[in-house]
Amino acid sequence: MPFPHIIFRRAGLVELDTATVDPVVSSPNEVVVRNRFSLVSAGTELACLAGLESWFQMPGTPGYIAVGEVVARGEAVARVAEGDLVFTYGPHAGLFKIDVTNRWGGMCIRVPATLRADFAPFTRMASIAMTSLRVSRIELGDVVLVMGLGLVGNLAAQLAALQGATVIAADVSARRRETALACGVAHVVDSTAPGWKDQVRDLAGRNGIGTLIDATGVSSVIEEASAVVAHQGEVILLGSPRTPHQTDLTAFLRRTHLPPFVDLKGALEWRFPTYREEFVKHSVERNSEVIMDLLASGRLRIEPLYTHRLPPSKAPEAYAGLRDHKDNYVGVVFDWSQT
């Protein structure tokens, strides 16, 4: 049976195509989902489109954030039922299958009735951001600097504030800084301005920056911003570094080994198990459920970040906008009812 799907035909070429998908369950752990909304993860998907991710083969269907309706499930699946609206790591496709035992792509949990279906895909980006909080030592009264105010960085800043921190967020884009203020971030700084680090230090006051969360993935930014981190502070890599950067590594590492004793931590979401485990407090599943509650209650704001709801036929326009007009294209959702 043919269903629409977005395809990266080759580097730089995005198309809407059809593929045959058998809507019948083929294994006991399988769930068949009819897509309703999928969200673009701009950083990773643009890297795939540019041919920079070796694990993504072209032609291929991108995407790993989808909310849809369960149309069938295998006999071993107990978490969801037919007719449930579920949050998944599914692709940009009209119909897809998920093996719920798959460590990397098996996420499939119910969406609360109190949460708008088209808001639910933002759970993934917020749970990615939440990993930076889970690995941190952020406590009530701490001061946190977030570098980069794209979707993930903005959500990390909001979550740090919900954890009790005073948040300073820096970005090169005036539009993104304005959006952060609209989302309730306390302080924003233009990271291209001369003396921006002094401005950060002034805002941080006597406590200094206890935690730096980098959401840019740009190694030069990480190196420069880490200079403002206070004694016994921490630098958390939320964005994935992808491009080479030449520097004096010894000088950078001495800040960890010697005073000011700054810790360096990675915050990739996969450091935690996918589903709950008896002797592990955090999991991607638990983080996702916490996020959905925050979204449903309005404590985590996505309206200023939700810039586009498009039919999948507009996929070429969407990826071009995310690549070339980053200030205007931030949260891009494909509406699969429009196919």
UniProtKB/TrEMBL annotation:
Keywords: Metal-binding, Oxidoreductase, Zinc
Entry-linked InterPro entries: ADH-like_C, GroES-like_sf, NAD(P)-bd_dom_sf
A molecular-function term among this protein's GO annotations: metal ion binding
Cofactor(s), names only, from the UniProt record: Zn(2+)
Entry annotated with the keyword Zinc: yes
Entry annotated with the keyword Nucleus: no
EC number: 1.1.1.9
Chain ranges of the Alcohol dehydrogenase-like C-terminal domain: 152-253
Protein family: Belongs to the zinc-containing alcohol dehydrogenase family.
Protein name (Swiss-Prot/TrEMBL): D-xylulose reductase
Organism annotation: mine drainage metagenome
